[in-house]
Amino acid sequence: MAEKVGKILAVDDNADILFALKMLLKPHVELIQTETDPERIPQHLSEEDFDVILLDMNFNKDAISGKEGFHWLERILEIDPGAVVLFITAYGDVEKSVKAIKAGATDFIIKPWQNEKLLATIWSAMRLKQSKKELSHLRERQKEINTIMDQPFADFIGVSPGMQKVFRTIQKVAPTDANVLILGENGTGKELVARALHRASTRNDETFISVDLGAISETLFESELFGHVKGAFTDAKADRPGRFELASGGTIFLDEIGNLSLPLQSKLLTVLERREVTRVGANKPIPINIRLISATNMGIKQMAAEGTFRQDLLYRINTVEIELPALRDRPEDIPVLAEHFIRIYSKKYNRQINKPSPSVIRKLTQYPWPGNVREFQHVIERTIIMSEGPSLSEDDFHLSSHAKVSEGLELDTYNLDDVEKKVIEKVLKQHKGNVSKAASELGLTRTSLYRRLEKYGL
Ligand SMILES: Nc1ncnc2c1ncn2[C@@H]1O[C@H](COP(=O)(O)OP(=O)(O)OP(=O)(O)O)[C@@H](O)[C@H]1O
Question: SMART domains, alphabetically (predicted)?
């Protein structure tokens, strides 16, 4: 190792041992701090951020029980739960090493040691510390991102009886760890419900990982969800954890679960039953501890009855169901949502916009909102950008293009899939094939639109 890396604290009552460690480690590490008095450990920890702590198991001369070492291990982990501690003892045996590791030590070094072996153990402990640091850094980032992302839409708006019922269910279910299935059309706020459940759960300090199952291709499914080891396939250049592993301790949100093919449903079911994942190319399963929240806009019970969605998987995921009503079915929410988004976008675009007039609210309430709140939000944003004065008038809201689409649509069938296909074709044509514009018009995300294009072979 050319560059000196890592800071090490070695604690042993035998000064000769410490001297030998210092001589061995000095050429390789950034700092090797030695200490004969374990009472001074807390002070060292407060002064320096050590990567690895080498800790003697017996401090009293002739002691062999290791009790003192265990006491200090406990103290160190109290001060820094992420500390990486290697026990040193001359009396090491299998039983004690197992006990030490159970108590939170990372590994075990037996005196007298072989230099090569000792160095190898220290390097791997150092790598572990590095990944622990990265993980905690990622967690902090995720927390920060969650707060930032939640901020503009922190308010989950809804005064209608339908939404009030949803809020009550969230409050009741969030702390229970029960698997939740969220049902509702596109843009009704399913992801908001999932995040609200996570925030109100006991796991709220941990990660919330959202996976759009509809956007993951069949071939990448396992590697994305369960991870892979280096060399498992051509593009696997390094070990990589999957989403389940990343979500462990926290919540995983599987969006668009109804889009999974039957073979992938079986793979998912196995993971949920065993509560462990095996990275692609590995043979050792990794236990996972997750809260599962799923969502779909499809008629999943119908699919289960028809055999396109596994009944046993449905039972696994829907301990509790939360159904989000479509926006057209909760007109009471239109005025509050309008005020909410006007507040957000007038701030974003630095505009002074008044509360919407009753005639504007009437117009917004009469429109059927096929893309639900997402579409509503886009319309408000677009209208604020295009409007001139502080008051929005009815004419500022251009909702007619949607009406035209449906007016000009010649239907020779009422099969919903065929209707959806026709509407998509029409809107795409209207936007000259521009997927972003078409998606926005349809109140869909680009990914959702792409998925539909694939589904209908467009
Ligand atoms: N009740 C609500 N209050 C405030 N904002 C909402 C509400 N419902 C939805 N939204 C907003 O609408 C947009 C769509 O919501 P979300 O992504 O949660 O819907 P979804 O049902 O998961 O959509 P999809 O099925 O397309 O994935 C988001 O920007 C969200 O913040």
Answer: AAA, REC
Residue nearest to atom 12 of ligand 1 (CA): 374
Q: Are residues 179 and 295 in the same domain?
A: yes
Identify whether 223 is part of a domain. Answer: yes
Q: Is 373 in the pocket of ligand 1 (CB under 6 A)?
A: yes
ipTM field? 0.98
| Residue 267 belongs to some domain of the structure | yes
Q: Same domain, yes or no, for 227 and 319?
A: yes
CB 344 near ligand 1, within 6 Å: no
**Ligand 1 binding pocket mutation candidate from 148, 188, 379 (most atoms within 8 A of CB):** 188
Q: How many CB atoms lie within 10 A of CB 422?
A: 18
Q: Are 288 and 277 in contact (CB under 8 A)?
A: yes
Q: Whose CA is nearest to atom 7 of ligand 1?
A: 189
State how far the Cα of 55 lies from the Cα of 72, in Å rounded to an integer: 8
pLDDT tens digits along 372-426: 999 999 999 999 999 988 899 888 888 855 444 445 666 677 778 888 888 898 8
Kindly write down the DSSP assignment for every residue of 63-125, as one continuous string.
--S-HHHHHHHHHHHHH-TT--EEEEETT--HHHHHHHHHTT--EEEESSPPHHHHHHHHHHH
DSSP character at residue 331: T
Specify if 141 maps to a domain. no
Locate all alpha helices (DSSP H) within 104-250, ordered by sequence: 115-150, 161-173, 190-199, 221-226, 243-247
Residues 195 and 238: beta-carbon distance below 8 Å: no
Residues 244 and 383 in one domain: no
